[in-house]
């Protein structure tokens, strides 16, 4: 009786998921249920493990971060395992082969509400799964279970109002300057996920301000990106430009959890040296907008061709390694 009270979009998604699950094979359905329950259950049961993190914090934030990253990397590894091994989502990497274990600022397009989850698949392969930190909207910090994890992982919450966010961001970013601490800082410069309605509004803004008209992206907000660069420039190895495309439709969180969609995720990555990015705010803003114009062309070609240039830059996940990490985490919270 509660289904009828849900928003139409969510109601439709749940009905679609129910249809898929009714037609799933018993083995696949059981695997999805087990991994989903393990992923959420382990996070819920892991609250007592924060004692170890707090103990490490007594000896300094550097050791606290080491303890946090070790613990949460094992939990996060459950999700790429769910996506790629159980849901059978094909994740195809293209562009450049990125080096292992760099300290980077990563910026990406924001196609749907779960783009940030597929960056886990890339971070896994680069040995940085436990060192991800996101800049995200403050309301996400209030999510059950996830919000608690975001706090522990030192994600940066923003209100998307620069007069409020600037001082908070800069203070938090300054705590990430120690080059001894591994870091993958992820930012979505569009500030919100893409919709046709938002795109039309973005195009109107671009036309009024002499900016490129983008058809597959929104005009990026440049101030947060520049703040990240300005504070962290001397402690980063590189900047990664990541573009994400989906086949055959953009997934939702419910799709991911229940193994409905997508059938394929394409992730295009480019490594950019800090010396290639201007140091002045005005020029850095122009540089970022030019990158988004390039990304817009990438996505237009992806829609036509079905793939990004130079696919196959990363291999498949190791099933043995996935199971080992999953088992380690389950034992640690049991």
UniProtKB/TrEMBL annotation:
InterPro entries: Acyltransf_C (IPR032098), Plipid/glycerol_acylTrfase (IPR002123). Its EC number is 2.3.1.51. It catalyses: a 1-acyl-sn-glycero-3-phosphate + an acyl-CoA = a 1,2-diacyl-sn-glycero-3-phosphate + CoA. It is an enzyme of class 2 (transferase). Keywords: Acyltransferase, Transferase. Residues 104-226 form the Phospholipid/glycerol acyltransferase domain. Pfam families: Acyltransf_C, Acyltransferase. GO terms for cellular component: endomembrane system. Coiled coil: none annotated. One of its GO terms (molecular function) is 1-acylglycerol-3-phosphate O-acyltransferase activity. Pathway: Phospholipid metabolism; CDP-diacylglycerol biosynthesis; CDP-diacylglycerol from sn-glycerol 3-phosphate: step 2/3; Lipid metabolism. PANTHER family: 1-ACYLGLYCEROL-3-PHOSPHATE ACYLTRANSFERASE-RELATED, LYSOCARDIOLIPIN ACYLTRANSFERASE 1. Belongs to the 1-acyl-sn-glycerol-3-phosphate acyltransferase family. This is 1-acylglycerol-3-phosphate O-acyltransferase. It comes from Ensete ventricosum.
